[in-house]
Design a protein that fits this description.
Elements: H1 10-13, H2 18-27, H3 32-40, H4 42-45, H5 49-61, H6 64-70, H7 73-90, H8 97-113, H9 117-134, H10 140-197, H11 209-226, E1 230-238, H12 240-247, H13 249-266, E2 272-277, E3 280-286, H14 290-307, E4 313-321, H15 329-350, E5 362-363, E6 366-367
Helix pairs in contact: 3-10, 5-7, 5-9, 8-10, 9-10, 12-13, 13-14
């Protein structure tokens, strides 16, 4: 049953049929004789219907909680008109599907304006007393028939209430499902963002040591798989500690940010730059040989000197894995690190003006000959 389908009648949504109506009447002991008895009392009720309705609402509005539910005078006027029709329908003789659908609509209206079952039952009992008193000359049979019919009506109204509750539960379930789906999406996005942030160096914006480790494994495996090569450059800042000690960590951090920007900007799209830790940086350069690494090293050294006003230098070493011999990632890193420290020793002994060609990279685990 789809409660939210606007193209279905309430009776259809509740699966109320002619057979269902007959069964409801039978369960209450309501027969054709009761319907005849009710119809015969119409001449007694019709002249007094306005008085019955007026007394009914005088009583209802005297109860503060009911008065609060009924609201403004326009609502009360509309309800009085509906009540007048209902009283006449109680003695109208037509108690089939059309009558049932009207009762269902009335029940839906009561539910919408907030008339709860306890108020509805009390009001129906009071209405029963008013009508029975008005038609007291019709005898006890009339009261018994009216009671059975009004119980029939109450059953339909409660079905409408339950339908409304079911619709609310269904809507709440859908809202909860949407909320849950949205929450899952947000959590997934946040988790992804946290995963990304956990791999980024907050200061420089480059990949951090964790990201470097994963990238190193990945690039080494890719180079081995395609039969190509990959170059690992290891860079260390010169004179950084002096700047940090003399000018403070804020200046030092700014220098690191500038260096990180240079590394990220100078690399190719296929290259990756990382802050390894402290003032050390690593670059992974797919399909780059020692000559290509040397050219890049020169460009990087010049760019770093420029953005730091020549206060900080850059010492680099590199190693190439493949295509002939592929080095395991851990050994690959050791080679590049050792190359960097060898070159730092060269620069220390010859001064910061030592040319970059004096840097000695390692290739496939063997130290390259020192250039002439």
């Amino acid at each position: 049953m789809t409660l939210a389908n606007p193209n279905q009648s309430i009776a259809h949504k509740l699966r109320i049929t002619d057979a269902d109506i007959r069964e409801r009447k039978s369960l209450l002991g309501m027969t054709a004789a009761d319907e005849i008895t009710l119809t015969r009392a119409r001449p007694l009720i019709e002249p007094c219907v306005d008085q019955v309705v007026a007394e009914f609402y005088d009583f209802q509005l005297a109860v503060p909680s009911v008065r609060a539910v009924l609201g403004d005078s326009d609502t009360v006027t509309a309800l009085k008109s509906s009540m007048r029709s209902y009283v006449l329908e109680l003695v109208g003789g037509d108690y089939g599907m059309r009558y049932a659908e009207k009762r269902l609509r009335v029940g839906r209206t009561h539910a919408r304006i907030g008339v709860t079952p306890k108020y509805y039952i009390a009001s129906m009992w009071h209405l029963f007393d008013l009508i029975s008193e008005t038609a007291q000359t019709a005898g006890d049979d009339f009261s018994a028939s009216l009671r059975r019919l009004m119980l029939f009506d109450m059953g339909l109204t409660f079905d409408t209430f339950l339908m409304g509750i079911s619709a609310q539960v269904e809507a709440a379930r859908d809202d909860l499902q949407r909320y849950s789906t949205e929450l899952e999406r947000i959590v997934e996005e946040r988790t992804e963002q946290l995963a990304i942030l956990s791999r980024i160096d907050e200061l420089t914006g480059l990949g951090n040591r964790r990201a470097f480790g994963d990238a190193l494994e990945r690039e080494c495996a890719a180079a081995r798989r395609r039969g190509g090569s990959v170059c690992l450059m290891f860079a260390d800042l010169d004179n950084f500690k002096s700047v940090n000690d003399l000018d403070g960590h804020d200046v030092g951090d700014e220098m690191l940010r500038r260096v990180g920007h240079v590394l990220g900007r100078t690399c190719r799209a296929s290259d990756s730059a990382f802050r390894f830790g402290g003032d050390e940086f690593c670059l992974l350069l797919p399909e780059t040989d020692a000559a290509g690494a040397e050219v890049l090293a020169g460009r990087l050294a010049e760019a770093v000197a420029k953005v730091t006003d020549d206060r900080i230098g850059l010492t680099m070493g590199w190693s190439v894995s493949g295509p002939a011999i592929h080095v395991e990632p851990a050994e690959f890193l050791k080679q590049a690190d050792k190359s960097m420290y060898r070159n730092k020793g060269v620069r220390s002994s010859q001064g910061q003006t030592a040319t970059l060609i004096q840097m000695r990279p390692w290739r496939n685990g063997q130290e390259n000959p020192k250039p002439n």
